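>> Question from a student workshop board

For tomorrow's exercise we were told to take the sequence and the ligand below, predict the bound structure, and bring the output to class. My setup keeps failing. Could a helper post the expected result so I can at least see what it should look like? The ligand is phosphoric acid mono(formamide)ester.
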Amino acid sequence: MSTRHFLTDLDLTNEELLKVLNLADYLKVNPYALKALQGPQTAAVIFDKTSTRTRFSFATGIAALGGQPIIVNPGESQLGHKESVADTARVLEKQVSLIIWRTYAQAGLKEMAQYSRVPVINALSDDYHPCQLLADLQTVREHFAAQGNAELTGRSLAYLGDAANNMANSYLLAGVNAGMDVRIAGPQGYLPAEEIVQAAQQRAALTGGSVTITTDPQTALKNADVVATDTWISMGQEDEKAQRMELFSDYQVNSAALALAAPGAIVLHCLPAYRGAEITAEVIDGPQSVIWDEAENRLHAQKALMAWLLVESGRADEQTVA
Ligand code: CP
Ligand code: NVA
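>> Workshop helper replied:
Here is what the output should look like for this input. Compare the format with yours to find the bug.
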């Protein structure tokens, strides 16, 4: 049985994604039902960048699965400066049952996975934030399920703002993997890279999803069921703040933008948010925002992911996650 990793949104098939989301829904109601890390086994949770939600949701989720998290803050291990990724992987896989890593380069995660026989999970890189998208899709499903239709297939999602960042890429890939009509809007020069658009189109052809990349926010917003945005200043871009505030100003998610979406559209933001920049306080705190459910669902979605990866990799008994 080969080891399954979760490095990008496309590392799950459509069918696998739905299994993980179903498990996440189950865990939301039965938080301590699965003991995939019983022992307790340990899980490395390594941060090269800061975090609130990812840290707390993984630590809490690992504990609820019967395990023990080992959290490594930026600069606290030998990884990256004194020891290579490959050597770190060779050491960690003998100690821990999962490696969860927030880092800069996607290439580092690929290398970690290449040398690790325990599952490696991307807890955010410069290119993707796939764990966030599991929580986002769980949130979309549960919101529309309450209105009678939990199907993600065919739902439209508009993402506005910095369309070249990790969240834009993950909305595009995870959205089409779920069969959604994904519209990404940002200024010229800040749109998803060509290879990511191509990968999205290929997956969309399998799932019935569709891809629109545009510089026009109104095109993206028209009748969208879900409106999403993210900070205009990602971690590491703080020096570009003034320039970015100007650059993305036409892509703010505010009441006027929301009025173009479908009536009853919901709003997502992975947080942390700069109120008054990419999104107004009125929208975050308004009736269409499901942002706090989205933050909560990080816990349930990641627990489901961890349990599923452990079973698929032959490291947990199916019964513990049945
Ligand atoms: N959304 C998210 O990943 O938040 P943190 O950076 O606080 O982990
Ligand atoms: N794009 C943001 C996401 C934070 C969760 C960043 O990388 O800082």
